[in-house]
Design brief:
By secondary structure, the chain is of the alpha/beta class. It has 9 helices and 7 strands, in the order H-E-H-E-H-E-H-E-H-E-H-E-H-H-H-E. Helices cover 39% and strands 12% of the residues. Keywords: Carbohydrate metabolism, Hydrolase, Magnesium, Metal-binding, Signal.
Length: 283
């Protein structure tokens, strides 16, 4: 290679790196589990209208899905994903499939509590029972079609408790269905990095400190996803728990408080972090 070509290549590479460094870090704040409770629905809407949340994930078979539909109709700016679900983990509240899929349910007709083996629920995970891929495809399709019919702007899918990861076959099925229904926004293919709290996050003080630490480590030119579960510390959510996770109401209220904290919004602005949604990745 001639010295002239080498110099040109070096200059082009330097310019590309300089332009990349000027691009802001982009961050998707995603709120999960819309529909599982009235408290969760209220908190998810609040975290969008008054805070930093940009995408929400809706559990179609959940008991408060009809309310979620109405709330999302009233807030058209929220990006919405289908949170494909094959489990019903909470005590005191349960949900059933929206299709007829007997291999996915327990003796009462509800989804199993867990996807993966759990010492607190022995024998009551989907992976420990004899499910069929036919039933999973039937249920995934039913959830997708109901969601699209009720919320036409659905942009993507995600999975509750990583249910599509139960086998490579199920993972491939979820990918195929996303493509078929034109709701395939694959974060891995788009180079999006998952991030979480950078440290302890049990209390609100810990959440805020660890969230700030995470924000300060985001790199210019890269795109990230942070997901959590907003809620309200009220009587309804205090009655919802599963063994091993009993402080649901207080924990999820902390997420709501964090995502609506003015100082957090100020920090994001000062660091020039661009808040985006899944659908922005298509632009």
């Amino acid at each position: 290679m001639s010295s002239k070509k080498s110099m040109l290549l070096a200059a082009t590479t330097f310019l590309s790196l300089a332009l990349f460094a000027q691009q802001p870090a982009r961050l998707i704040i995603r709120g999960d589990d819309m529909g599982f409770s009235h408290s969760g629905n209220l908190a998810l809407i609040k975290a969008f209208k008054q805070g930093i949340e940009r995408s929400v994930e809706v559990i179609v078979p959940s008991p408060w899905f009809p309310e979620a539909v109405k709330m999302l109709e009233a807030n058209p700016g929220i990006d919405v994903g289908i949170h494909l679900t094959l489990s019903s983990e909470w005590e005191n509240i349960k949900w059933r499939p929206v299709s007829i899929c007997p291999s996915l349910t327990d003796s009462d007709g509800y989804f199993q509590p867990m996807i993966w083996p759990n010492k607190n629920y022995p024998g009551r995970s989907l992976s420990e029972n004899k499910w069929t891929i036919t039933d999973i495809e039937k249920e995934f399709r039913a959830q997708i079609e109901l969601a699209i019919r009720k919320i036409p702007r659905i942009s993507h899918i995600s999975t509750h408790m990583n249910c599509a990861g139960i086998t490579p076959e199920v993972s491939a099925l979820a990918k195929r269905l996303a493509e078929e229904y034109n709701i395939d926004i694959d974060l891995r293919e788009l180079g999006v990095t998952y991030v979480g709290f950078d440290g302890p996050h049990k209390t609100l003080v810990e959440k805020k400190k660890s969230f700030i630490s995470m924000l300060n480590k985001l790199e210019a030119g890269k795109t990230y996803l942070f997901l959590e579960h907003p809620g309200l510390n009220d009587a309804e959510l205090q009655a919802i728990y599963h063994i091993g996770y009993e402080d649901v109401a207080a924990d999820r209220q902390g997420v709501t408080d964090l995502w609506t904290d003015p100082s957090i919004m100020t920090l994001i602005k000062s660091r020039k972090i661009e808040l985006i949604s899944y659908r922005d990745l298509k632009k």
